[in-house]
Each structure stands twice: as C-alpha cells, then as structure tokens.
Design a protein that fits this description.
Layout lengths: L8 E6 L2 E6 L10 H16 L5 E6 L4 E3 L13 H5 L4 H7 L4 E5 L2 E3 L1 H8 L2 E5 L3 E3 L13 H9 L1 H10 L3 E2 H7 L4 E3 L4 H14 L2 H16 L2 H16 L2 H12 L9
Parallel strand pairs: 2-3, 3-5, 4-6, 5-7, 6-8, 7-10
Antiparallel strand pairs: 1-2, 8-9
Helix pairs in contact: 1-3, 3-4, 4-5, 5-6, 9-10
Length: about 260
C-alpha cells in the first residue's frame, strides 16, 4: 500500500476496498494544491492496484465531506493558464475505472460537491448539505459541476443551485436524486463499506464494465449505447470470471473471481 504525499490525505485498505479520507477537518476538509496532488496519486494507485475492487471516499470529522479548494491558495497560481492546468483531483476520480462510492458526512460545497458528483454512488449523512457557491465569489465550478448536476437532478434544479449558490439539505438532495440514500451520521461509513464490499464481491471486470457502460449511456444516442452495451456484454461473457460465474451457478456455490 502506498503512503500518501500529504498528511491530510489518508488511505486505508479493508479487503478489496480502498478507503480514502480527506483529513483536514479544522478547515472543513478544504483541499490545498499539495492535497490535490496527493489525492490524485492515491486514487490512481487504488485504480491500478489489482487487489482493489471498490473505492470509498469520505471526509474526516462530522462537519464536512469537503468544502472544495482552499480559496486562500487560489491566488498562488502565477497565471490563469497555470490555474487552468492545475492538478485536478476531480479528473482523477472521474477517470477511475473502478466503482467509487462517496460517503458524504457534512458540507459538500464547491469542489466537494463536484467530488461527490463524480463518484458513481452517493450516500449521505442526514446532516449533509450541498452547494455550488462559486457564483457568490464571481466564478463557476470547473470540475464537471454543471453537467453532472444537470444529469443528477435535472436542469431546473441544477439552475437553482448554480445560479443562487445557496445550499440544499440532505432531504432535498434525496428528493432531487442527488444522493441514493440517507444514513445516520454514525452509520455512514459503515453503510458505504457494506455496499463497497458487495460490489467488490462481484466479478471485477464486470463491475468495471458496468461503470463504463453506464457512463456511455449518458454520452451516446440510445442506439449507439445499446450497440456498445452488446459489445461490452460479449467481451465480459468471454472472461475467465464469467466462465467461473456460470460454473459456480451450475454447481450451486459461491464464485471465486480473479479479474481475468
């Protein structure tokens, strides 16, 4: 297991699940450039590690999942172009092939909201809240905020969040479809781990392919998406894990999968 380059990014491994914790609770887990670089490295390590089959991302403490970038560090970029080409942890999470679950334990604001949106599954504490507050400071999000919000909660609800910058509470997030489930704060990470372990128990190539196929469904026409799905089905059907799955079904036993 790798050692994160920042003390504010923690990595734990539980079986086939990697747990990544943004650990700067005194600053609402806001992310500095050093933390962003470390977070990218940790996500890329988990995505490449053969033993990891699912990833959980959460924040330390009870108040915040992540409040986005530390605003005080944004003026350290020498030019707008340097800012444009900064290391972006949202890109790394979006590029991960493996399933990623966000366990949202408080404020998910700005880049923290983007981080949660880019995860495949979002579970939230009953005390969580969500906001795209960049407009209040004169800019907009740049990590996929608009497109992922529109896909998650619809254009009208996305417009409310993007154009006011005001937060919504956990119940509203559930009602709008921003999160899949609300959990009491003390149970949040445990519930995320339950779900991650279930996903990690499935044939890994099939789980990664399901993720790729779901993303394609949002970016292709329906006919293209159906052809792509059939092609991916054919690929997964030919794997050793699929052969093991069929054998295990016939023999009425649990399958043993090796990501082959």
């Amino acid at each position: 297991m790798m050692e994160p380059a920042s003390p504010n990014i923690r990595l734990e491994v539980d079986g086939h699940v990697a747990i990544i914790t943004i650990d700067r609770p005194e600053k609402l887990n806001s992310v500095t450039p050093e933390m962003s670089y470390a977070l990218v490295e940790v996500v890329e390590w988990a995505d490449a590690a053969d033993e990891i089959r699912a990833i959980v991302i959460t924040g330390a403490g009870e108040r915040a999942f992540c409040a986005g970038s530390d605003i005080r560090t944004l003026d350290t970029y020498a030019t707008p172009w340097e800012f444009r080409n900064r290391t972006d942890y949202c890109d790394a999470i979006r590029d991960a092939r493996k399933p990623v679950i966000a366990a949202i334990n408080g404020y998910a604001f700005g880049g923290g909201l983007e981080t949660s949106l880019i995860c495949d599954i979002r579970l939230a504490s009953t005390t969580a809240s969500f906001a795209a507050p960049e407009i209040k400071l004169g800019w907009i999000g740049g990590g996929g905020m608009s497109t992922f919000l529109a896909h998650s909660i619809g254009p009208s609800n996305a417009a409310v969040m993007l154009m006011t910058g005001d937060p919504i509470d956990a119940e509203t997030a559930l009602r709008w479809g921003l999160v899949s489930e609300l959990v009491e704060p003390e149970r949040l990470v445990a519930r995320a781990m339950e779900l991650a372990r279930v996903i990690a128990s499935r044939p890994p190539i099939a789980a990664e392919t399901a993720k790729a196929n779901l993303r394609a469904a949002f970016n292709m026409t329906q006919d293209e998406a159906m052809r792509y799905e059939r092609d991916l089905q054919t690929v997964t059907f030919a794997t050793a894990d699929a052969h093991e799955g069929r054998a295990a079904f016939a023999e009425k036993r649990a399958g043993v999968f090796h990501r082959r």
